[in-house]
Amino acid sequence: MKVNNSDQLIERINRLKQEKNAVILAHYYTRPEVQRVADFLGDSLALSVKAQKIDAEVILFAGVHFMAETAKVLCPHKKVLMPCPEAGCSLADSCRADEFEKFIAAHPGHKVVSYVNTTVEVKALTDVCCTSSNALKVVESIPASQPIIFGPDRHLGGYIKRLTGRDNMVLWNGCCHVHDKFAVERLREAKVKYPEAEVVVHPECRDVVVAEADYVGSTAGILDYCRKSPARQFIVMTESGILTEMQRLMPDKEFIPGPADALCDGACNTCEYMKMITLENIAECLENGSPEIHLDEQVRRKAERSILNMISIK
Ligand code: 13P
Ligand code: SF4
Fold it and tell me: Whose C-alpha in 95, 203, 210, 248 is 20 to 30 A from the C-alpha of 77?
């Protein structure tokens, strides 16, 4: 019998989690109903750290493919399930490992820092990973005289370059199709319309958008900032899924979805890949124990080193 009611599906998922000794890790950008079945909801950094500490035999990753891969890299002996392997990431796709390898070869003597939004093969070519939460700390942990390759997000890389004043940082020319479309002219209009609102921006946005921010940070950083800020209204320049958790944690504050390119009819601030994870495919994935993430052990080990190098930076 096909179950299509959300509450019934949630009940089925909760039962399956117990039966299979599984936990669900979900990113803030997933659908609201998916966030309801998560045992842990977080940003890229928190999810990576959490994956390492999980006791359950099975991790189901509600997020995009590179996130599930990261969990598998860190937990090779666990079964890591990915309900929709087609849920990719335009940023990870903007950096193919074979091309990145050539880029590295063209810049001898550079340390390679890669944002976690990359494939496992790119992580294997990397010295130290970073997320939007810790990119500044990671770059600052490298001696100022040491040249760096930063990939794949040119906006995050540019932001870190401006903050540190490092001119020995070479940027890979990639970006996220969602954050790249937040529009500065429309943000300025929104600021006029909501003069009391603070502007919170993810560093994957363009520099002109970042320049308008009261706060720049990862999804977890943005949540934390909004909780502490006395402001009552916020214009949120990141993927719209985060609004669910913002509204849940701060029901007395108002969150205005950040305006993207007018040509997109309001849909640009949504990551279609994150929304590919549904209650239906989570339930099926738990039931069948697949699709599962499998990695080449040699590549996994190299990727693990770059992620552990990141986690060890305090
Ligand atoms: P964070 O989870 O680091 O905020 O990154 C956002 C993102 O784009 C994830 O795909
Ligand atoms: Fe990738 Fe952008 Fe979607 Fe994040 S929001 S998963 S960076 S495409």
Answer: 95
Amino acid letter, residue 286: L
For residue 143, whether the previous peptide bond is cis, meaning omega lies within 30 degrees of 0, is no
Of 263, 241, 245, 262, nearest to 253 by C-alpha is 245
The ligand 2 atom nearest the CA atom of 90: 8
| pLDDT tens-digit map of 80-134 | 999 999 999 999 999 999 999 999 999 999 999 999 999 999 999 999 999 999 9
Measured in Å, residue 286 CA sits from the centre of ligand 2 at: 24
Q: CA-to-CA distance for 276 and 132, rounded, in angstroms?
A: 23
As a whole number of angstroms, the distance between CA 97 and CA 111 comes to 16
Count Cβ neighbours within 10 Å for each residue of 190-220 and write b for 16 or more, e otherwise: beeeeeebbbbbbbbbbeebbebbebbbbbb
Closest CA relative to residue 152, chosen from 179, 172, 126, 168: 172
Q: For ligand 1, is residue 131 a contact (CB within 6 Å)?
A: yes
Q: Which atom of ligand 2 is nearest to the CA of 271?
A: 3
Is the peptide bond prior to 291 cis by the omega test (within 30 degrees of 0)? yes
Rounded distance, CA 65 to CA 83, Å? Answer: 10
pLDDT digits (tens, 9 = 90+) for 197-221: 999 999 999 999 999 999 999 999 9
